[in-house]
Amino acid sequence: MAKGLGDRVAIVAMGCTPFREHWDKSADDLLVDAVTECMDGVPGLALDDVEAFWVGTQGSGMSGQTLAKPLGLRGKPVTRVENYCATGSEAFRNAAYAVASGAYDVVMATGVEKLKDSSFSGLTATWPPSDGTDVEWTAPGGFSLLAPAYRARYGLTERELRDALTHIAVRNHANGALNPKAQFRKAVSKEAVERSPRIAGSLSVMDCSGVADGAAAALIVRAEDAHRYTDRPVFLKGMGFVAGNGDGLSTDGYDFTTFPEVVQATAEAYAQAGVTRPREQIDVAEVHDCFTPTELVLMEDLGFAERGRAWADIVAGSFDRDGAVAVNPDGGLKSFGHPVGATGLRMFYECFLQLRGAAGDRQVPGARLAVAQNLGGQPGSCVAFTAVIGNEAP
Amino acid sequence: MAGATITAYAVYLPGYALSTTDFRAEAGSGGRRARSVAAHDEDAVTLGVEAGRRLDGAARDVPVLHLATSEPPYLDKSSAATVHAALALPASVAALDLTGLRAGAGALRTALAAGGLAVLADRRTDAPGAPGELAQGDAAAAFAAGPDGPIRLLAAASGTVELLDRWRAPGAPHPTVWDERFTAGILRDRALDAAARALADAGLGRADHVVVACANPRAAAAARAALGGGADAEVEGLTGYTGAAHLGLLLADALDRARPGETVLAVNAADGADAFVFAVGEGLEAARCGPRVRDQLTGRVPLTYDRYLRWRGLFTVQGPNRPDPAPPAAPPMERRRAWKNALVAVRCTKCAAVTAPPGRVCAGCGAHDALRPEPLRDLPCTVVSLTEDLLAVGPDGPTVQAVVDVEGGGRRSVHVADVPEGGLAVGDVLRPVFRRISSTQGVHNYFWKARPMEKVRHG
C-alpha cells in the first residue's frame, strides 16, 4: 500500500467549464476557460507562479503542449497523462504526488476532452496495431454485462433491478437539473427512462451517460500553505489507484457483480483517510455513473451498501441528496456527459464546492467528507481511482 | 491415380436456407426449392475450415492441402494457407489454391494422385433477380486421400473444352451466363464422354450411384438421365449449385447412402469434364466424419430475402456512426499465430489456470514464463454474461458479444455467431467457430467466434 498523502496537500481553487456540445470552442478554448476560472479563485496568484502542470486527455491532444500552447506557458514542465476514463483523476493524482514529494509547492492539474468534433456515436478510441483477436467492446456493451450478472447472483426480478437502475437515472438527472454546468438540465420521469431506445443488453439510452466537451482544473498546494491562498481549502485525506491486470476477462473466476479494482483502490483510500464506516462518515460521493448498473455496483464496492442490497437502498432513497450518502449531487456523468479527460476533475470540482458550502441549490448541509471515485476500462478489466477529501484542516 | 483411396470425408453446410426472393413473403414460404446460405461472416475460407476440422486427425498426415473455390477471399495471398493454419496442420504440409468451377474436381484429382487433403468450399452469388439466383448455394466438403481408405478410386477421366458459358472478372460481384440452352448440350456431351471413359477403364457398364455437378441445370439433368442418376438432384434442389464445392457435396451425399460393394460415378462438368469412379468397401462408416449431408439439410434456419441481401452486401443499411474496425497488423498476427489461427491459449504449470489470450504471465497466479500451450479450439464454453450491442451494428443488425468460460478452464470474450431467434442466455453452451470478424482496407480479419452447439443429428 502506498504511503498516504493524508493532510499533506490541499486544493485551494478549481475551475470547470460547462459540459456541453461546445461547437464554438476548441479543446484549447476549454482549457483556457477552466484554468481562468481556477486562477480567479486565488487572487494575487499568477499563472506564472504555478510551478508545474499536468494535463489529462485521452485523445484531444498529445504531450504537455496540449496545455502549454493554449495557455502560452513559458518554461514550465507540463505532463500529459492518460488512464482511460480515469484520466482526469490521474492528472490530479500525479500533481498531488509532486507537491507531497517536496518537488513543487504550487501545481495545477487539468483535464480536457473534445468529443463532439468527431461526429461518432458514443466513445471511441484509437488502439495500437494488433492481431485483431480482441473483442472491441463498446462502452455500453461492456458495462451492460453487469446487469444480468447482478440480477442472477442476487435473485432479483427484472422489475426490481429495473426500478433501481431507473431510480439512479431519475435522481441524477434531477440533481443535474439544479446545476448550471450540467449538459442535461431537465429532470426526467421514470417513464421517459424506461421508454427510451435500447442501446446494449438491457440498457437504454437513458441508462447511459452522454458525450460532451469540457475541461476542469485544480490548483494544488502544500497543506500547510493552503490558508495563504484561501480561507476554505479542501484537504486530500486519502487516495488509491489500481490499474487492473485484466484477469477478469482472461481467466475464469470473476462474476461481473463488482469492480475488484475499485474495491482495492477504495480500501487504500479509506485506510489513509481513517474511514471505517463509509456510509456514516462520507457525506457526498461523486461516483462514476457511466451507466446505471455501474453506479449500482459501486454503491457496494464503496461500502455504502451491503453486498446484494444496493438495489434496495437505491430505491429507498439512501443515496439521494437527503439520504445517508448524497451520491452524484451535481448530476453525475448522467447529466454532464463524459469528456474523458475532464470527468475525474469535474468530480473533484463538485466535492470541492460541497465541502466549501458553495454548491447552491444542491448543497448537502454540513458536508465534511467527500469521495471522488472514477474508473475506466470495463468490468473485468478496469482502472480505478478513489479519493477521500475533507474540509477539516490537519 | 487408380488404386488411390479416400480415407475420410466430411461436409459442412451452413445453417441457413433461402427459399424465396419475394420481399413480401415470409422466410421459408417459397417453393420446394431452396438454396444454402452462408452467414454474413462466412466465406470460402471459413466454410472450408468447418469442413476440414470435421476430418479431425484424418487430415493431419497429408503432404498437401488444396483449397478449391470460385470465390477466394484474396487473389495474391493464399487462402489455402489460412485454412491450413486454422486446421493447425504441420508447417511441413503445403497449402495450394485452386480457383474456378473446375477447381473442386482438380483438388480431388490432385489429392487422389499424390495423397493429400482436398478442401472444396464455395459461396455463390448470382445477381438479384437473375433466373438462377435461387439455384446457387454455399457449401464445403473435405476429402483426405491416402493408400488405405475404404473408398477406392477405380478410374478417372477428363476432357477439356473452351466454352464461354459462365464467367466473372476479378472483383465482379456476380457471374454472367450465356444462353444455357446453347451450352447445355456441349457440357452434357463432355460429361458423358468423360464418364464413359472412366467407366470403361473401371470395367463397368454403369455405376450404382451417379452424381453430376454442373452449373448448367439442363446439362446436369440430361447427364443424370443418361447415366442413370438423379438422387443427387434432391440435394441440389435444397442447396443450389455450390460451385467448386458441388462435386464434393454430391459425392459425399452418395457416399452417405452407398453400401460396401457398390460403385459411385462422380462427374464434374465445367470447362470440359472430370469423371471419377469409386468402389466402396468396408469401413465406410469410419471414413464419414460429422453428420450426413441430408441430416444437415434439416433444421436450417429459413432466411428472409432482405436479410440474405444484407449479408451479401447487396442491400446496405445505415448503422450508427462509428469508425471502421482497424485491420489486424502482420507482426502481432505472426507473434500470436497459434492463438490467432488455431485458438491455442496457455495453461500454467504452477496453478493450472488457463490464460487467454496467451501471455507470458499466468492470469491466475502471476507465475512468469511457466505456461504451456492449451488448445481451446474444440472445447465447449459456457456463457457467463452477454450483451446485444445496438451501438455496434454489423451486417446482421446488433452484434452479440459474450464472456464465456471454457470447459476445463479459461475465459474468452467472444463475438457470437449464428445467434438463434430467441437469443442466448447465461449458462448456454457454445463452441468455437472460425469466422470473419471484419474486413477493412482489404484485409479480412479471421478469428474464432463462438456459436450455439448444433442440434443436428450425427449419422
TrEMBL record, chain A:
Keyword Transferase appears in the UniProt entry: yes
InterPro entries: Thiolase (IPR002155), Thiolase-like (IPR016039), Thiolase_C_2 (IPR055140), Thiolase_N (IPR020616)
CDD domains in the cross-refs: SCP-x_thiolase
Sequence intervals crossing the membrane: none
Keyword Transferase among UniProt keywords: yes
Superkingdom in the source lineage: Bacteria
Domain Thiolase N-terminal: start-end pairs: 9-223
Annotated keywords: Transferase
Limits of the Thiolase C-terminal domain: 255-378
GO MF annotation terms: acyltransferase activity, transferring groups other than amino-acyl groups
Annotated NCBIfam families: PRK06157.1
Annotated protein name in UniProt: Acetyl-CoA C-acetyltransferase
Species name: Actinocorallia herbida
UniProt lineage: Bacteria, Bacillati, Actinomycetota, Actinomycetes, Streptosporangiales
UniProtKB/TrEMBL annotation, chain B:
InterPro entries: NA-bd_OB-fold (IPR012340), Thiolase-like (IPR016039)
Single GO term (MF): acyltransferase activity
Stored SUPFAM superfamilies: Nucleic acid-binding proteins, Thiolase-like
Name listed for the protein in its UniProt record: 3-hydroxy-3-methylglutaryl CoA synthase
